[in-house]
Specification:
The structure holds 3 protein chains of 3 kinds. Chain A is an alpha/beta fold. Chain A has 11 helices and 8 strands. In chain A, α3 runs parallel beside α5. Chain B is an alpha+beta fold. Chain B has 3 helices and 4 strands, in the order αβαββαβ. Chain B is elongated, with a radius of gyration of 18 Å. The longest helix of chain C is centred in the middle third of the chain and has 30 residues. Chain C has 13 helices and 16 strands. Classes of the chains: A alpha/beta, B alpha+beta, C alpha/beta. Chains in contact: A-B, A-C, B-C. Chains A and C meet through β1, β2, α3 and α5 of A and β3, α3, α5 and β9 of C.
């Protein structure tokens, strides 16, 4: 298992004990995004400013008069974390030039809602302009905060309140948007997918994204016990299973080179992942089996594509 | 309830723009009351791997110089992730 | 203190003022007829004449979002927009005022689609009159220049901390080439030294901004905003004084013209105010006791000054360059009537909606409006809906 090529911490005992997120936030018991946020803060390398889009994390971590954040934190609107962060980065650049402020890293955070859908424009602009910032999308695969409505990140077959698994239509039929591909299309220096199941891989990737000069994008899978319908204790297991079934490939894009971090030589059958979650339960009815076939098709096609990309962009050994 | 209202500030006294100037003051809000099951660590089996510490969403597992980790009952929501990720299964969730 | 006279359009004047104002960040998106502002600023940036960081955002919504982020770091921030752009950033306007960001934004007031129209009227800014922003209307490029400078000063006052719009009439003011007296760089630099913000995102003092409030706290923050914009009104006297000291130009919240013994007053905002004064002079020559008031400060609304100015006036013709469909009257009339409601001797007020989509307003039309208002007074007639001035029936 090759995780991120540069590791922030080799062992857990080295991870800083200072907490910059929580406790006391109102996120659900067993919340994946909560773990994603806490681990993210462990990757900070110095003064850091966080800009957060509207969503589960934002609402549950800052109910006035309480805040769970130990770093300067800003929330503006739902779709503009990347735009506000751009303003912060440039303002800081100017003030640091003038010696009116000290340098700080800027991290923009959004859920899949604020990233894949309503936030795409602002992210596109920020990535295209090349600001030195990091955008982290914690993906719980639906607009969970407002009550489990589907997003562009909701996977095929999933039941949500706006892609209901009914007798005629078995849940969401559109495939999950490839947000990594969208980010990479902007020719940014670094992009990486990760899950909260591997602390070392995720934290290292966040650190690397922060260290990179220019825009970096992180897509972290953060399961939601309420929306995905499973026992809260299984959050980490389910995230790990997503990797082990190849439905969520974990890879990096570094200066044009694709690198699949977890090759998953013997992928687990997708049914093992689906059966753990209530949002897929209806897929096990005979009439919906075709959806599971579609899911398998997409997993294979996506994996093949990544393998080809990895091959095509791997650095050639120099001629003697 | 009345005393709570009295403690709430009026518009002249709150910081502008809803700014919260005390970092992580959410610690005043003890989410421990949420749980219906409590984790218990069997320290005889614990190998101090720190997995429970890194995977806790709150976080409510504290690092301890001798014991390695200690569960802080103030914020534990009883999710059971610690019990699940423990490689030696030394954490049990006890119902309340 | 030295000034020089330069030929400038309203847009160019705004850009020039911004250049001199120790602005830190410009986060803007082009839209007719404000494009000259952003283009000129881009030129300044490319030639090293301005040290501000220039962010070419991908939409007006992001323009305001970038401004908010930058402002909360403690930077002095400027942007500009018009029409559709202002409408697009609508939710961000409320966020900016709620987060108490002293952003200055020039608006080349332009009609709103549909149908699409690129010419001047006030519909865009009227749509934002409840957003908690200060709004000052300018009449010509000189005022556009001066107002941009004072807007920074006013917005950043600690007891104000409210974003401000500097309104120009689209094309009419934004593109009119006139003589503008500009201050020298040092004078402006002293007038507007680099910003020092108290409330900001600073790792040495971590603050959480943009919180989630429930029904138990939201109201208090809105009350604070109401107070802050009231404070802006209180500060105006000192602001205008301070500006007069460095420029020898004396401004006030409203500009009165021959109101002292006027029977009828014409109330306008923006470039029409100049035409109105001309119309008033012509009426006076014909023996009609006319006067005019140009409302400069629109938000906060200068109710007290207007009440005083209109004392003794028997008829008022309000010229609204925006409609408010379904409302009893158009926006400016509504504010005027509200503030006149409790006066002992209420004048007859008639609302004239004019100039939508850049439709021209002439001296004759204004004179006719004044006469209509006088006539309504004499005949004790109530005109309870707007008169559309200049539309073809």
């Amino acid at each position: 298992m090759e995780s991120s090529t540069s590791q922030a911490y080799t062992k857990l005992a080295d991870v800083p004990t200072e907490e910059l997120f929580g406790p006391g936030h109102r996120l659900c018991a067993g919340c994946g995004p909560a773990i994603a946020m806490r681990m993210m803060t462990k990757a900070f390398r110095g003064p850091t400013i966080v800009v957060n889009a509207t969503g589960c994390v934002e609402v549950s971590s800052t109910p006035y008069p309480y805040t769970s954040w130990g770093v300067p934190w800003l929330h503006v609107l739902f779709e503009n974390a990347a735009a506000s962060a751009s303003g912060i980065v440039e303002a800081l650049n100017k003030l640091v030039d003038d010696r009116r402020a000290k340098k700080a890293d800027v991290v923009a955070v959004g859920g899949d809602g604020g990233t894949f859908d309503i936030g795409v424009q602002a992210i596109s602009g920020a990535l295209e302009r090349g600001h030195d910032l990091t955008y982290i999308c914690y993906d719980n695969e639906a607009y969970q905060n407002t009550g489990i409505q589907r997003s562009g990140a909701t996977p095929i077959g999933a039941h949500t309140t706006t892609s209901v698994a009914g007798s005629v239509i078995p849940g969401k039929l559109e495939p999950k948007k490839d947000m990594m591909a969208i980010a990479i299309a902007h020719k940014i220096p670094y992009a990486a997918s990760a899950t909260i199941a591997d602390w070392k891989d995720y934290i290292s990737k966040v650190r690397r994204a922060i260290e990179v000069d220019g825009p970096a994008f992180i897509h972290v899978l953060a399961p939601c016990q309420l929306g995905w319908r499973y026992d809260p204790s299984l959050t980490i297991q389910i995230a790990r299973m997503a990797v082990q079934t190849r439905i969520f490939p974990v890879y990096e894009y570094v200066d044009g080179v694709y690198k699949i971090n977890f090759k998953v030589p013997s992928p687990k059958p997708i049914e093992e992942y689906l059966k753990l979650q209530g949002r897929f339960r209806h897929l096990f009815q005979d009439k919906n089996k075709w959806v599971i076939d579609k899911i398998k098709e997409n997993i294979e096609a996506n994996w093949r594509r990544l393998v080809m990309l990895e091959e095509a962009t791997s650095p050639r050994p120099s001629q003697p | 309830m009345a005393s709570q209202k009295a403690r709430m500030k009026g518009w002249r006294n709150v910081e502008i723009a809803g700014a919260i100037t005390t970092p992580r003051n959410s610690r005043e809000y003890k989410t421990g009351v949420w749980r219906s099951q409590t984790p218990e660590i069997d320290y005889d089996k614990c190998v101090k791997c720190l997995f429970c510490w890194i995977y806790c969403p709150e976080p409510t597992i504290l690092r301890h110089p001798e014991k390695g980790v200690e569960i802080d009952p103030d914020y534990c929501k009883g999710c059971g992730i610690c019990a699940q990720v423990c490689p030696v299964k030394c954490i049990t969730m006890k119902g309340m | 203190m030295s000034q020089k006279v330069v030929g400038m359009t309203g847009d160019e004047a705004v850009a020039y003022a911004t250049k001199q104002s120790n602005v830190d960040v410009i986060s803007a998106y082009p839209i007719t007829p404000q494009t000259i502002i952003v283009e000129r600023l881009s030129e300044y940036s490319a030639n090293g004449e301005i040290k501000a960081k220039y962010i070419n955002v991908e939409s007006e919504h992001s323009a305001m979002s970038g401004c908010i982020g930058a402002s909360l770091i403690g930077a002095r921030v400027f942007t500009a927009t018009a029409s559709q752009g202002l409408a697009l950033m609508h939710e961000a306007l409320y966020a900016a005022s709620g987060l108490r960001c002293p952003i200055v934004m020039a608006v080349a007031c332009r009609a709103l689609s549909a149908p699409i129209n690129i010419h001047g009227d006030h519909s865009d800014v009227m749509g934002s009159r409840d957003s908690g922003w200060i709004q000052i209307f300018t009449e010509n490029p000189q005022e556009a220049y001066d107002t941009t400078l004072i807007a920074f000063k006013l917005a950043e006052k600690e007891n104000v901390l409210t974003p401000a719009m500097v309104n120009l009439d689209g094309f009419i003011t934004s593109h009119a080439l006139e003589k503008v007296e500009v201050l020298d760089d040092q004078t402006v630099s002293r007038y507007l030294p680099p910003r020092k913000a108290r409330m900001k995102l600073d790792p040495e003092n971590p603050v959480t901004l943009g919180v989630f409030t429930l029904y138990d706290y939201y109201f208090e923050f809105k009350r604070q905003q109401a107070e802050a914009i009231k404070e802006a009104h209180k500060e105006m006297g000192e602001i205008w004084n301070g500006f007069q000291k460095i420029s020898d130009r004396r401004y006030s919240n409203i500009r009165k013209h021959r109101l002292k013994d006027a029977d009828v007053a014409v109330i306008t905002m923006g470039s029409t105010s100049g035409t109105a004064r001309y119309a008033v002079d012509e009426l006076r020559n014909k023996g009609v006791k006319a006067g005019s008031v140009a409302v400069r400060l629109f938000r906060p609304f200068p109710a007290k000054e207007l009440r005083q100015a209109l004392e003794g006036v028997k008829a008022v013709a309000v010229l609204d360059r925006a409609a408010s469909f379904g409302a009893p009257m158009a926006p400016l009339y509504s504010d005027i009537a509200t503030m006149l409601y409790d006066v002992r001797q209420r004048p007859t007020i008639v609302d004239f909606v004019y100039g939508l989509g850049g439709r021209d307003i002439t001296v004759d039309m204004i004179a006719s409006a004044a006469k209509q208002a006088l006539e309504a007074r004499r005949k004790k007639r109530v005109i309870d809906e707007p008169v559309y001035l200049g539309v073809r029936e």
